[in-house]
Amino acid sequence: MRETVSFLTRVALVLSCGVILSSTAAADDPCVDAGNKIKTFTSSLRSVVPVKVPHGKFDVKEASSRFEIFYRSNGKTVFHGSYLKRDTYIMYSVIPITGAGYSGLFINANGGGFGGPQCAYVVFPSLRSNEFIFKDLLGPSGYPAGTRPPLYVASGAMAEDIDSDGDTEIVIREAANWSWDWNCPFSHADTPYWPRIMHFSPHLGQMVDVSERFPRYYASLAEQFKKLNNELSSATNMPPRCESELQRLIKKAEGLGQRSKQAGVTADRNGDIWVTDQVAVLSAEQHKEISALLQSHNQKGPGRIFLLIVKQLPANTTIERYANDKINEPALAGNEKVDRILLVIALQNRQLRIETSQEVGEALPDAFCKEVINRLIVPKFKAQQYYEGIYAGISALIKKLTEY
């Protein structure tokens, strides 16, 4: 224990002194400099904290001149780093972020003073590589330290729980296609930017664009853009290129806003009716492969198989009750209410179930479904191989159905 405390003390000193000793030269990009410091922090974190530490959580304490960053597990502090809030050209803010079974950090850096380049980074665990990952959200600013970019090319990011479900969303505000010489009549506060909503997938070790899961957010954004367009069009002679670009953003926001979530398991980021991955456990390619497997079987049968991956079960609901309710929803049952099989995975609860409708109960008896779960799916899940476990389980169900 004494050796651990000594090592953590050295980590804290390296982090705090690193900000002072590597001060940014005036010609350097402040976002590149800030990113290098966050990389150093991530390397220190990797050397101390194993990703598989159970129930680990970041905690950030803010003092007058620095942040104290803790990583705690089972009531014990396994990492403590000290990080300065301000550098020559950079002001930092550090926010803990949470998701399905993980904790990470969102770090924002303002380079160049008020109105200067915005830099944003995240540090989060990857269960695929078993280490903490550093991700630069916005890249180099392209503007030297101590300078400010034109208003219309500034981009940024923020962390917030948009739908109040306990998961932190990262909203990346992309620089719009405005040109400085278009003379668009926007103030700093009402400049329209396009936001992308991202989630972290610790199982994939990457960020996933989940914008399509937030139709209400984009419907509201479309209304804001319309209001701005109406106000400026009536009050000023808005240049055609500015109006054309604003109309493009309105149309794009309306498109996402009209993608209302369908009932049951069809609310998926890919619009897939067979596969619903609400936690982004599967990569886009893995999603397509499993969907293609189900599509090929479900078109000819026997039995229609659906996959549903959720973060956690509703409060006071068992996996059996939840699966039974879902398999009888119109999104699955339709008007026929026959031959349905649903594989439900509740990731945070660490529970899964194969639910069958009465029509296919004889072809897929409970003993067989239990064997598929215990022999094919669970061992892969324990090894963090979610795609492999799901694919093996579904393949076994298809084989059994076609042989029946």
Could you say which structural class the secondary elements and strand pairing correspond to?
alpha+beta
How does the overall form come out from the CA principal axes? globular
Helix content: 25-40%
The helix count comes to 9
Number of domains: 3
End-to-end Cα distance, whole Å, is 60 Å
Q: Nearest-angstrom radius of gyration?
A: 25 Å
State the order of secondary-structure elements, H for helix, E for strand.
HHEEEEEEEEEEEHHEHEHHEEHH
Strand order of the largest sheet: 4-5-6-7
Proportion of β residues? 25-35%
The biggest beta sheet reads:
4 strands, antiparallel
Low-confidence segments, given as residue ranges, are 1-27, 260-271, 333-337
Query: Residue-averaged pLDDT, rounded?
Result: 78
Number of strands: 15
Quickly list its features.
404 residues, alpha+beta, Diaminopimelate Epimerase, Chain A, domain 1, four-stranded antiparallel sheet, 9 helices, disordered N terminus
Give an overview of the whole structure.
With 404 residues, the protein is α+β, with helices and mostly antiparallel strands. It has helices at 2-21, 30-48, 215-235, 240-257, 284-298, 319-327, 330-333, 366-382, 386-403, and strands at 57-62, 66-73, 76-84, 90-99, 102-111, 118-126, 131-136, 156-160, 169-174, 194-201, 206-209, 275-277, 304-310, 340-346, 351-356. A hairpin with a 6-residue loop joins strand 5 (102-111) and strand 6. Helix 1 runs antiparallel to helix 2 (30-48), helix 5 packs parallel to helix 9 and helix 8 packs antiparallel against helix 9. The longest helix is centred in the middle third of the chain and has 21 residues, at 215-235. It is globular, with a radius of gyration of 25 Å. It starts with a helix and ends with a helix.
